[in-house]
């Protein structure tokens, strides 16, 4: 089916910039996109993968094999926008600002003197901590395109950290929402767009989230927006809840028997390097991959946490074969398809792969010294010393059975 942006997306009357004659009417801006949906398969830009056989209209609860994500959409054509009110280069919009990475991006931006606006979905518990830091919070939802344009008024740069929640269909936010956001950014003359993706996403079309990230990269490139794509390997912060806290609380630590190696990086370093890239003209249009100084296996991370905590971990190992079987089973039921999509990503992380890349070229582009990047040893040592040890002592004194972080 053909979808076109509402008129308010393609006629930026409130803010028009550029050189030369005034732009033609909205239709000439070319800000439309076409896609087709076949048996709930997504079709987007520049990517393809072989779909699995599926029934046209499966009934709820009945088994079926779900097709893989494929992408072939058209990016918006370049618009000739007339001169208008200039926008300060320090005005940025952070999308996904309440997440693990997004909140660090917001903090770094504020510390460096940027005027930060955060796009936050309406929620029962407002993101008051962002306001307390000094950011402006605006309510919008990527799954509702009509809410997006107002958030972009007066914005110079968009930093896109958003990823759909685990309970949401992946394509709703990570593809359809991102397409709408990029189109709005193009229509409204946004000067730069930063998109966070996943390392090696182009090599795993069988994983919906990775395929969508790769398709979004291509859609953004074809849009003509001045952009930077940053692929990430893994966050050090994620290891705290996965390994450090369970070890201190003497609870089970879950892992797999795969020799996967991941070069985890501190999200504070990711945020810092992002703003260095924003100020570097030679980073425009680049595809950068951020990786930590060393790639670690699950067992190596657990061993490091055990040493720093001073106690052994209760490790429960899940064979990769069990993870793979679970994914295949969940594929058979319509109501578990999204669970299967998430398991597909977990399966890649549990395979015999290395999520890392040499950073020498990236350091040269950004003018960064590798010695300034936090190592996993240093990060976990600081965490255990300054936080978890104190909480552990507090727990022992109060004889509480549960502590929530």
Automatic annotation (TrEMBL):
Pfam families, sorted: NmrA
CDD domains found in the cross-reference section: SDR_a5
SUPFAM superfamilies in the record: NAD(P)-binding Rossmann-fold domains
Locations listed in the record: Plastid
Keyword check for Plastid: yes
An annotated GO BP: photosystem II assembly
Protein name, entry field: NmrA-like domain-containing protein
């Amino acid at each position: 089916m053909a979808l076109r942006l509402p008129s308010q997306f393609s006629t930026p009357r409130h803010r028009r910039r550029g050189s030369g004659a005034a732009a033609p009417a909205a239709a000439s801006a070319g800000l439309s996109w076409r896609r087709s949906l076949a048996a709930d398969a997504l079709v987007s830009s520049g990517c393809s993968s072989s779909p699995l056989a599926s029934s046209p209209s499966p009934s709820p609860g009945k088994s079926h094999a779900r097709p893989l994500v494929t992408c072939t959409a058209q990016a918006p054509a370049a618009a000739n926008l007339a001169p208008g009110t200039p926008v300060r280069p320090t005005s940025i919009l952070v999308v996904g600002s309440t997440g693990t990475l997004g909140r660090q991006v917001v903090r770094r931006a504020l510390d460096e003197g940027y005027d930060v606006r955060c796009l936050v979905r309406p929620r029962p518990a407002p993101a008051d901590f962002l306001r307390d830091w000094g950011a402006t919070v605006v309510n919008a939802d990527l799954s509702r395109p009509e809410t997006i344009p107002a958030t972009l008024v007066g914005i110079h740069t968009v930093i896109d950290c958003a990823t759909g929640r685990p309970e949401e269909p992946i394509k709703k936010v990570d593809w359809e929402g991102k397409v709408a956001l990029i189109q709005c950014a193009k229509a409204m003359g946004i000067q730069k767009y930063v998109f966070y993706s996943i390392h090696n996403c182009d090599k795993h079309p069988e994983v919906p989230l990775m395929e969508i990230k790769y398709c979004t990269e291509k859609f953004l490139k074809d849009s003509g927006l001045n952009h930077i794509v940053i692929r990430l390997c893994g966050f050090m912060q994620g290891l705290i809840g996965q390994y450090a806290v369970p070890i201190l609380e003497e609870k089970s630590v879950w892992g797999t028997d795969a020799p996967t190696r991941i070069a985890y990086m501190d999200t504070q370093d990711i945020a810092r390097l992002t703003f260095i890239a924003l100020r570097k003209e030679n980073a425009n249009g680049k595809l950068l991959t951020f990786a930590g100084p060393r790639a670690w296996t699950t067992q190596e991370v657990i061993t490091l946490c055990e040493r720093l905590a001073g106690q052994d971990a209760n490790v429960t190992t899940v064979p990769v074969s069990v993870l793979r079987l679970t994914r295949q089973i969940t594929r058979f039921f319509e109501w578990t398809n999204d669970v299967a999509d998430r398991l597909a990503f977990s399966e890649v992380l549990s395979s015999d792969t290395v999520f890392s890349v040499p950073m020498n070229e990236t350091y040269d582009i950004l003018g960064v010294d590798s010695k300034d990047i936090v190592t996993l040893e240093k990060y976990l040592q600081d965490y255990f010393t300054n936080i978890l040890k104190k909480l552990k002592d507090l727990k022992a004194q109060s004889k509480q059975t549960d502590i929530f972080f």
